[in-house]
Amino acid sequence: MTDHAPRLFTSDAEIAHLGEGLLARTLTRAEWTHEAHLAATTYLLLKRPDIDLDKALPGIIRGFNESVGGVNSNTEGYHETITRAFLHGIRLFLLEADRDAPLHELVNELLMSPMGRRDWPLRFYSRERLFSVEARRSFVDPDLAALP
After folding, report:
1. Given 6, 57, 111, 114, which is the most exposed site by the fewest CB atoms within 10 A?
2. Distance, CA of 40 to chain centre
3. Which residues contact 89 (CB under 8 A, 6 or more apart)?
4. Superkingdom, according to UniProt (predicted)?
């Protein structure tokens, strides 16, 4: 497990920019970091109940990737299992989080939690399974431990 310190946010406006920018495909590729993925998803879960993320998130991310010149292939771009694992982790985090806190503080808490770590899915998946073409293309069940 890595000890990479996440980039934290200083305002709710930063989070809104990421969430709405993802939807509008106005973010730059450089803005689309691990932290931005989690911040945008948290924003969408909490502020955009009109969007069914279980259905829409794959297309949202694929479309964004293509809008910045990326490719969604067997080796790069959208990854279904990682996306689903982190969506599950964010929802798990939000079950016990103080939703009355400022959004950026909530996202920072998420980023500092186990569910916010880049390697969180590797608690449940072997590298071989998680980084397989099958896992990129469709959700695969964990092979090390069940998702909590």
Report:
1. 114
2. 7
3. 115, 116, 120, 147
4. Bacteria
